[in-house]
Amino acid sequence: MMTLTRHDGTTSPVRQYCDGPLASHLEGFAAQLLRMGYAPNTVHAKCDVLADLSRWLGRRQIPLAKLNETRLRQFQEARRLRNSVRRCDLATGQQFLAYLRDQGDIAPAVQQIDRTASACLIRAYEVFLYTERGLSRSTAARYLPIIRCFLDERFGCKIPRLERLRPQDLHDFILREMRRVSRSHGKLIVTALRSFLRFLLQRGAIQTDLACTLPGVACWRLSHLPKSLPPDQVKRLLACCNRSTPAGERDYAILLLLARLGLRGGEVLAMTLDDRDWERGEIVVRGKGQRLERLPMASDVGAALVNYLRDVRPACATRRVFIRMKAPHQGLAVTAICCIVRRAIGRAGLAPEFKGAHLLRHSLATDLLRRGATLGEIGQLLRHRQPITTQIYARVDIAALRDIALPWPGGAS
């Protein structure tokens, strides 16, 4: 029987006072929770809830094989009537169901599949994006809500009669959406609709290429200056990390990767323990389009990573480099990098117009240009596929632009 040590120094077996169909499974579940970084007191609290669940199942003669989400909700309701339910109890039950399914002890969860015509169409379009267009899941995840919104607005709960689609339907939807979103998101809406309409044309669901009728969104590539911070503010932002805490040490390493190597937030999230080549002093970057590229690792970046990996990162099963400091120890969420940047900006007392992870990427490029780097060199560091993508930074060097500007007609000589 597994014994855990509480914070007060006392010990207790995880199966103490537990009977019923779950008794033989609590030890393995508790061991998994400990591996995920949960404190012994938390593990005990979770096992107490599951011991209560086991007794509840036993009294009703419900075997382990019949345990599912419905039974879990019934148990929660019974605890609520006894005023003994806690906020985290449902999450504990769901964790335990996932553990049992991983072990093969209960049946997989029943998938609730939406079989409406619109849902089937969207699933077919999703498969098209992956298999024929080769898009990443993150890109598809941005397209699908737009298409779902359009179909709901145009057809509601009815079967979508795609042959009745007209350019005016598409234009009205775009105009309504543009009133509530930014221009860049408006471009995404038009791009998603064009992709969906070409899918429909390829399938024969429509006979006219409606994608050609969609208007463009006026958001020119070189129409604005890239948002950036001057070097002294970047230095101040990095200095504000509290490196005496595990989270501060992790965040400092993340911010250095953004500020020194110009990585995108998603590229930092995707890093694994296998992406470091310490002998060559290089780092493998999993960039856009599933490309793998190598970048030289600056000395301060390498030192920050060593400190984080050696002294801070908890031991866990995931190969991701950057993980949660609190249980469960797993990879960071998609929005975590931007949140880390925003918190650092707040600590530094800065107030830039743009506060996302790309701010440090733009700041690096702008600083390199002002120190004499060519646009080609900057594009190579930022891993731009097309030179035109880097040209936006040419507008930052105002002094150089004045030297090549033509005199104003009729102006002073």
From TrEMBL:
Residues 119-201 form the Core-binding (CB) domain. Keywords: DNA integration, DNA recombination, DNA-binding. Residues 224-406 form the Tyr recombinase domain. InterPro entries: CB, DNA_brk_join_enz, Integrase-like_cat_sf, Integrase_catalytic, Integrase_recombinase_N, Tyrosine_recombinase_XerCD. PROSITE patterns: CB (PS51900), TYR_RECOMBINASE (PS51898). Gene3D superfamilies: 1.10.150.130, Intergrase catalytic core (1.10.443.10). The keyword DNA-binding applies. The keyword DNA-binding applies. This is Tyrosine-type recombinase/integrase. It comes from Paraburkholderia caribensis.
